[in-house]
Amino acid sequence: MRGVEQIPWLYDLICAIAEWRGLARWRRWLAGGATGRTLDLGCGTGRNLPLLAGTRSIGLDPAWSSLRRARRRAAGVALVQGSAEALPFRDGVFDTVVSGLVLCSVPDPARGLAEVRRVLRPDGTLRALEHVRATVAWRARVQDLIQPAWTWVAGGCHPNRDTERAVERAGFTIDAEGRRARANLRRFVARRSRS
Questions:
Q1: d(C-alpha 54, C-alpha 43), whole Å
Q2: pTM of the entire structure?
Q3: What is the distance of C-alpha 54 from the center of its chain?
Q4: Which member of 48, 57, 133, 179 has the lowest number of beta carbons within 10 Å of its beta carbon?
Q5: What CA–CA distances, in Å, run from 14 to 4, 26, 117, 127, 185?
Q6: Under DSSP, is residue 45 helix (H, G, I), strand (E, B) or coil?
């Protein structure tokens, strides 16, 4: 589905404005805690990649046009075209998976999160910065109303997804430390649940 997220120059412009308004600090937090072999899931135009210094990073995105733009930002980073629901990596190969404004657009988030769990080492971490379903009832209803049009315009983004609950249902435990909320934005670290 083609939308704003698949028009790299427009997506970068929108992100630059959001980063100027405070998202940059959250993006630095997202990348700053990554260690070891790191997958930037849905790397898009590569805005996280330069911030992943000190890691062995791989960027994955379904859109070639975004990957071409990411190449300009991170010349030495391996970039792979692929989807979250079918990650082309062995089991337990990553220490960290970074997901920055991605899980809202994955067509099958449960399957995508199962794949993230599969490719993470048992002691690995999922670091996420996502916009999520509102906790205020009337705002959640507005998200539900605009969702079909928003999803079409934004190329698959679902503004009303309860991403935190989906992460927990996928077999992760979200750490209380570092978990933050600002309006409909959330940042958190999740680890594979012990079971």
A1: 17
A2: 0.89
A3: 20
A4: 179
A5: 9, 16, 30, 22, 16
A6: coil
* CA neighbor of 127 nearest in space, from 180, 66, 63, 183: 180
In the chain, the N- to C-terminal Cα span, in Å, equals 37
In this predicted model, which residue has the larger pLDDT, 166 or 3? 166
The alpha helices in the chain, defined as continuous H runs, are 8-18, 24-32, 64-73, 109-119, 137-153, 163-169
Residue 16 vs residues 39, 47, 174: alpha-carbon distances, Å:
22, 10, 28
d(CA 101, CA 131): 7
C-alpha–C-alpha distance, residues 63 and 128, integer Å? 20
Q: pLDDT class for 2, splitting at 50, 70, 90?
A: very low
Radius of gyration of the chain (CA): 16
